[in-house]
Amino acid sequence: MCVISGALHVDVAGSQRQWQAGDAVAVGVLDDAPDACFTLVTLVMRAASADVDTHFVVLSGPALNEPIAKHGPFVMNSIEQLNDRISAYQRGEFGELDDDTFPQLRACRASP
Predict the structure, then answer these.
(1) Read out DSSP for the chain?
(2) For residue 46, which of 1, 5, 11 has the smallest C-alpha distance?
(3) pLDDT tens digits for 49-75?
């Protein structure tokens, strides 16, 4: 889940957090039971303020059970793949997002 703009109050099984624009988090179920794929997790979210619009993205999918190498926003399966993609990013091969096309990114750029 990633908060694009605004802020969210989130409650996961009684654990409460507040996420701001630019915050991203993974929520997973750790369960050794054979039927773990059927475990129900309730995630309660509400906007931190009724006066400010809040936009967020939620992605979901099955666990891939693959090796992970990560650095900042980059996640790959090996250090070699990770280094290759970081180099490609540094060479400008990923393109760019401009504020005119994506004004909602201004909040992320302004965050320290």
Answers:
(1) -EEEESEEEEEETTEEEEEETT-B--------STTGGG----EEEEES-TTS--EEE-----------EEETTEEESSHHHHHHHHHHHHTTTT----TTT-GGGHHHHH--
(2) 11
(3) 777 788 888 887 777 788 989 888 889
User: What ranges do the domains of the chain cover?
Assistant: 2-29+39-110
Spatial neighbors of 47 by CB under 8 A, at least 6 apart, are 6, 7, 8, 9, 53, 54
Torsion of CA 111, 105, 93, 58, to 10 degrees: 100
CB atoms near residue 63 (< 10 Å)? 9
Q: Is the pTM of this model over 0.90?
A: no
Binned at pLDDT 50, 70 and 90, residue 35 comes out as low
Instruction: Enumerate residues 6+ apart whose C-beta is below 8 A from 16.
Output: 9, 10
Chain length of the chain: 112
